[in-house]
Amino acid sequence: MKAELIKQLQDYIPFNEQEEKDKEVIIEALINYEDIFYRSNLMAHITVSAWVTNANRDKVLMAYHNIYDSWSWLGGHADGDEELLQVALKEVKEESGLEHVTPVSSEIYSLEVLTVDGHMKHQAYVPSHLHLNLTYLIEATEEETLQVKVDENSQLGWFSLEKAVQASSEPWFRDRIYSKLNEKLLKF
């Protein structure tokens, strides 16, 4: 399975310089670390995110993330599961309460290496580390009822593409990630 992911990443065409450099880092980590799919790797591990869009591709679903104190995309840790698209779908369902979510494509939509500052989670310290993140484009309907996952987020909402970027209080995510995801969405 890891070999298939490496091949998929090797074939992935980076959208910009950030993706080009981050692709190299992620492939190198996959080759060199046996435990890269587990949080037990305290330096770096695989995560997935979902850019959840409506059918018209003019809105995205965001969650107000408790740890980061910011509106953000949905996603989570692989935790040993190498079926990363399935992990993304599971995380969207868990974090939003949505039951009907579908991948727009099975292909990786975006990739990024994300820095995570040390923080407390479940009364335990989590040291600073890297998330080697693959993003998938997921579709859901705005009509379905949203449900907060209280241990992770405190609000959920659909935002226009521009408002989704503005809603984040994290400048790097606004300028480098969410803007990029929207730019790619307009070309999709």
TL;DR?
The chain has 5 helices and 10 strands, in the order H-H-E-E-E-E-H-E-E-E-E-E-E-H-H.
Task: Please give a structural write-up.
The chain is of the alpha+beta class. The chain has a single domain (2-187), classed as Nucleoside Triphosphate Pyrophosphohydrolase (Alpha-Beta Complex). The chain has helices at residues 2-11, 17-32, 84-96, 161-167, 171-187, and strands at residues 44-53, 59-65, 70-72, 74-77, 101-103, 110-116, 119-121, 124-126, 129-140, 153-160. α1 (2-11) packs antiparallel against α2 (17-32) and α4 packs antiparallel against α5. It starts with a helix and ends with a helix.
Quote the beta fraction.
Answer: 25-35%
Give the tally of β-strands. 10
Q: Tell me the Rg in angstroms.
A: 16 Å
What is the CATH architecture annotation? Alpha-Beta Complex
CATH class: Alpha Beta
Distance between the termini: 27 Å
Count the DSSP helices: 5
Pfam families: NUDIX
Protein name: NUDIX hydrolase
InterPro entries: NUDIX_hydrolase-like_dom_sf (IPR015797), NUDIX_hydrolase_dom (IPR000086)
GO molecular function, one term: hydrolase activity
